[in-house]
Amino acid sequence: MSDKNPLETKVSRRSVIKAAAAAGALQMGAPFIGNARAAEPVKIGLDNPLTGTYAAVGKNEMIGCQLAIEQINAKGGILGRPAKLLVEDSTSGDAGTAVQKARKLIERDKVSFLLGNVNSALAMAMAQVAYEKGVIHVVPGGHTDSITGTDCHWNVFRICNTTQMEAYAVGPELLKKGGKKWYFITPDYAFGHTLQAGLERAAAKIGAVKVGGDLTPLGTTDFSSYLIKAQAAKPDVIIFLTQGNDMINALKQAVQFGLEKRFHLAGAQQELEALEGLPPEARIGTWVFEWYWKQPGVPHVAEFVAAIKKKTGRVPTARTWFGFASTWTCALAANKAKSLDARKMAKALQGMKLPPEVGLMPEQPFFRAGQNQLIPTLYVGNAQAKGPGGPDDLFNVTEVVKGTDVAGTLEESGCKMVWPT
Amino acid sequence: MSALTRQRLSLALIWLALLTMPYWMNAVGGYTELGTRVLVLGLAAMALNFLLGFTGVLSFGHAAYFGLGAYGAGMAIKYLAPSTPLAIVIGVVLGTLAGAIIGALIVKLRGVYFAMVTIAFAQVFFFIAIRWNAVTGGDDGLTGWHRHALDLGFGKIDILNNDKAFYYLVLVLFAIAVGLMALLLRSPFGRTLLAIRENERRARFLGLPIEQHIWLSFVISCLFASLAGTLFALLSNFIDPHALHWSQSGNFVIMAVLGGMRSFWGPLVGAAIFVVLQDYVSSHTANWMSIIGLFFVLVVMFFPRGVLGMLRRKAKS
After folding, report:
1. Among partner residues A2, A86, A100, which is closest to B236 by beta-carbon distance?
2. Contact residues, chain A, for B26 at CB < 8 Å
3. Cys-Cys crosslink for A144: which of A52, A120, B5, B38, Cβ 3.0 to 4.6 Å?
4. Which of B146, B238, B286 sits opposite A125 (nearest CB)?
5. CB atoms A93 and B139 under 8 Å
6. Chain B residues close to A38, C-beta within 8 Å
7. B294 in a domain, yes or no?
8. Which of A88, A107, A121 lies at the smallest CB-CB distance from B33?
9. Chains A, B: CB pairs < 8 Å
10. Cross-chain Cβ contact A189/B283 below 8 Å
11. CA end-to-end span of chain A
12. Residue A348's domain is classified under what CATH number?
């Protein structure tokens, strides 16, 4: 700059901006230097949605993970070393980002365990990375069958149910409460496809029929055209398989249309997060929950609920439990195998039962050997506008279904596990 | 120091940095795959800049050719044969072919109309990828395949498990692509493109076939964008429709503008800033996009010639 004003002060606006930018950049840099120094703890990497349609459920899983980390460290850590949780936002539907973050956690941060993802498609994509790198991967809440079915891997474990298990659990109740003509509103990705296929199989078993259905893109906000089509098909039950914000939008609009007066509005998987997001008049229908905070007589559940309430002020949801159980699974595997070797830990997990203070269910859930799928309890019931247990009691459990009754056989899962030599 | 020696020096510095990247990446908190990503997205942004910065035509749909390259590569390995070179060739041919056909349809359009139509065509491919579940895997992405070791006849290079080997494969292809682009820009053809960029009407009065030149420039740009796409798919061993989405096209434009679209290396610098910023900031906050947006606004407001343009001006003054 040749045309300098002699009266100009020494500190120009530009250098202030530069200094501010440099200070900002320093903030970014510092934590990484910190990471490099503290190589001591055992790292668990959570690659889960924090933004988008699954942000609410993703955050609840993270809270569960955090509580588990606190408990693990209070009880002596993993192999005597402290456990540390690293969190990355995978977004709700961008598998490319989830894969990138999984590689980052494994490559740079050298995590011993990878956790995630809420979105089944992202979970499958991450499982492929984890398999390639030979890292233990626990899927807290991605339900599509193939993760522990046809695409199963020796190192990939899953806490939540398969979509088929949910379908078999809720099918009879849908028939009883609604009727035999079913119409599907299904999200157009892995989870929706397999959940609908599962319900169709369940329907064939009990004598219900599919009269139509629509695939809706993930993140749909306007369901009116689908709902108009659904009415025209004259079903007994309109089955909503959407999740997250999509579930909230779909049910809200169905109730605005007054469909609940003419059809039974129901579905399979339902979550407390979605019911909380709904207006009271839309909290209706038959559903299956995968975990519920009100389980009288089941040991340790009350303590867990109290601990989460202390952390967040809200009751835990199934998602909180998924995160909690999957983080504990890592610690239990390492401590049982007495090693952080992925193969040894995977072997230790075969058939392992979750202890009561982690399982938090009437029947102790266990990882089925040869499939790596947790076989838990399922809770079938109906949504309610207001329950006797306070503002968080939005689900009324009418039937507790044993996982072993709906899980099918190992052969039916389609999993043929190959172990590395 | 004369301008020429300074230019040579900075060129040598760029290549030295790229050649040694895998060895200092970990020390500064990165990892090899991050470096590979920078190269791949840098190549895509440079390919876009061939059109944007040197021909003066804004394409907002380059993700289409990037994604077609990626899907071409992935599907070649999944359905045809387990060969990495074949995958790259098929991906590039697919992307370039699409570019040639679509380019011929739209070369007569200018300015915002050109940009709009490129977006529209890109979205066509996006919806094909997201809807055709049986072949593309739909929204779940294309899984169940991975890159294969390079068979050179006398030995194999394990690019699957060795990140550094794959990085150098990408670097070699990047160098060839960048070298070709530089040669083209120095040729009479490249000079003509600059003339079109500066004043299209005057170039037309000189008797230059404008449409053919823009078409060829578009096809060349698509060729290198699809090459970047194939490498992107091979890097993650995965591809999903988001690589075809218009927001991905927007990211390429951001990279080019961020780094400086009038300079040859600008888009690579822009890609490096974009990728590294995204990688670091997104570990700390879910709102990482707003940080990148803020940075972009600052650059456009204060350094309209991009980061590299700003450094250049500094060096001159």
Report:
1. A100
2. 108
3. A120
4. B238
5. yes
6. none
7. no
8. A107
9. 100
10. no
11. 67
12. 3.40.50.2300
State which residues form the domain around A338.
Answer: 42-162+300-376
Q: Which residues contact B106 (CB under 8 A, 6 or more apart)?
A: B114, B117, B118, B121
Return the H-helix or E-strand segment holding B189. Answer: helix B188-198
* The two structure tokens encoding residue B247: 């927001």
Q: How many domains does chain A contain in total?
A: 1
pLDDT in tens, chain A (421 residues): 444 444 444 556 666 566 666 655 555 544 444 444 444 899 999 999 988 778 888 999 999 999 999 999 999 889 989 999 999 988 877 777 888 899 889 988 899 999 989 988 889 889 988 998 899 999 998 888 888 988 899 999 999 999 889 999 998 889 988 899 999 999 988 888 889 998 999 999 899 999 999 999 888 899 999 999 999 999 999 999 998 889 999 999 999 999 989 999 999 999 998 888 888 888 998 999 999 998 888 889 999 999 999 999 889 999 999 999 999 999 999 999 999 999 999 999 999 999 999 999 998 999 999 899 999 999 999 999 888 888 889 999 998 999 988 888 888 888 998 898 7
Which residue range forms the structural domain that includes residue B211?
32-244
**Hey, which residues does A186 pair with through a beta bridge?**
A215
Q: CB distance from B315 to chain A under 8 Å?
A: no
Q: Between chains, do B282 and A89 touch, taking CB under 8 Å as contact? A: yes
How close A168 comes to chain B (CA, Å)? 24
Enclosing H/E stretch for B278: helix B266-281
Does A58 map to a domain?
yes
Closest residue, chain B, to A216 (C-alpha): B131
Confidence check on the interface: ipTM exceeds 0.85, yes or no: no
Which residue is it, tokens 């890109």? B122
By CA distance, what is B141's nearest residue in A?
A: A95
Report if residue A285 sits inside a domain. Answer: no
Contact B236 A36 (CB under 8 A): no
Cβ-based neighbours of A380, under 8 Å, separated by 6 or more: A169, A170, A173, A286, A287, A288, A289, A397, A398, A399, A400, A401
Residue A365 in domain: yes
Contact B238 A188 (CB under 8 A): no
Query: How many domains would you assign to chain B?
Result: 1
- Asked if B227 contacts B93 with a C-beta cutoff of 8 angstroms, the reply is no
Give the type of residue at A262.
Answer: R
Residue of A nearest to B317 (CA): A1
Query: Can you list the positions of beta strands (E) in A70-133?
Result: 83-89, 113-115
Residue of B33, B139, B245, B310 for testing the chain A interface, max A β-carbons within 10 Å = B139
- B218, part of any domain: yes
Which residues in chain B are closer than 8 Å to A35, comparing Cβ atoms?
A: 29
CA-based nearest residue in chain A for residue B25: A108
Strand partners, A289: A379
- Do B240 and A125 count as a contact with CB atoms less than 8 A apart? yes
Within 10 Å of residue A276's Cβ, how many Cβ atoms?
16
Q: Distance (Å) from the C-alpha of residue B166 to the closest C-alpha of chain A?
A: 15
Which amino acid belongs to residue A335?
N
Is residue A271 domain-resident? no
Q: CA A102, CA B237: separation in Å to the nearest integer? A: 13
Bridge partner list, B142: B239
